[in-house]
């Protein structure tokens, strides 16, 4: 069993053991974990016996709260870095270290090669903007990572939060409804 599968099984066991009032909070906690997110969090709730609407809302809420925290922290870090760079530039220090010119444009050298998931998100950002990158992002990397990349790249925090919320609600709703239909009509639970 993979670590992710083991984590999901543990959350399902925890949902079954706690009183009914606390079960949505366990789902929120599960959905806040990257790679579990709202989609698998809602599945944990459904398999754990929660009402599909409660499981979906709890999972989407938990996922969004973790994304909001990541956006706030990344936004503050970006602001600090940009401010520090501007201060260095005005004092006379080097504004952008490790820069090489390509066709007259200066680009910073990456410290390490980009992952395939990050490359996809950046491609979608260039092609479709923040809305497209937010909605397509879960196909490549977790929403928390997508949000951090978007904010670190300079996208407005509120815009990122809005489109991350749309993406979370969309994907959590689709997976919750799909699993609920499969459980009720195919499995007969």
Description:
The protein has 189 residues and is mainly alpha-helical. The chain has one domain (3-111, 142-187). It has 7 helices and 2 strands, in the order ααααββααα. The protein has helices spanning 3-17, 23-31, 37-47, 52-91, 116-136, 143-152, 157-187; strands at 99-102, 105-108. The two termini are 25 Å apart. Keywords: Membrane, Transmembrane, Transmembrane helix. This is Small multidrug efflux protein. The chain crosses the membrane at residues 21-47, 53-74, 124-141, 161-183.
Helices and strands in order, then pairings?
Layout: H1 3-17, H2 23-31, H3 37-47, H4 52-91, E1 99-102, E2 105-108, H5 116-136, H6 143-152, H7 157-187
Antiparallel strand pairs: 1-2
Helix pairs in contact: 1-2, 1-3, 2-3, 2-4, 3-4, 3-7, 4-6, 4-7, 5-6, 5-7, 6-7
The DSSP helix count reads 7
Distance between the termini: 25 Å
Question: Rg from C-alpha positions?
Answer: 20 Å
Structural class: mainly alpha
Task: Bin the strand percentage.
Answer: under 5%
Tell me the number of structural domains: 1
Largest sheet: 2 strands, antiparallel
Helix and strand run: HHHHEEHHH
Biggest sheet, spatial arrangement of strands? 1-2
SS elements, strand count: 2
Mean pLDDT: 84
Unreliable segments of 5+ consecutive residues: 98-107
Work out the helicity level: over 70%
Shape: elongated
